[in-house]
Amino acid sequence: MTMPPWSADPEASRPHYRRLRELSAEIAKENIPGVSLAELSMGMSGDFEVAVEEGATLVRVGTAIFGERG
Q1: Residue 47: φ, ψ to 5°
Q2: Are 13 and 43 in contact (CB under 8 A)?
Q3: What is the separation, in whole angstroms, between the first and last Cα of the chain?
């Protein structure tokens, strides 16, 4: 799971999401017993499209569903 620094520009999240995907692949190559990285949890309502493009399997979209917190 990763949460990049907040930015109004969704593209600012891309390098963070890309690096998590790369780290996941590197760890998978190690074949560590008992370690499975089947999910990549990254992206929120404002940048989930970028996260999905970078390989997200889980996204958090609460604000898109429920609106802004008060």
Answers
A1: -145, 20
A2: yes
A3: 26
Q: What is the DSSP string of 2-69?
A: B-PPP-SSGGGGHHHHHHHHHHHHHHHHTT-TT------EEEETTTHHHHHHTT-SEEE-HHHHH---
pTM for this entry: 0.89
What pLDDT tens digit does each residue of the chain (70 aa) get? 999 999 999 999 999 999 999 999 999 999 999 998 889 999 999 999 999 999 999 999 999 999 998 8
9, two tokens: 């520009």
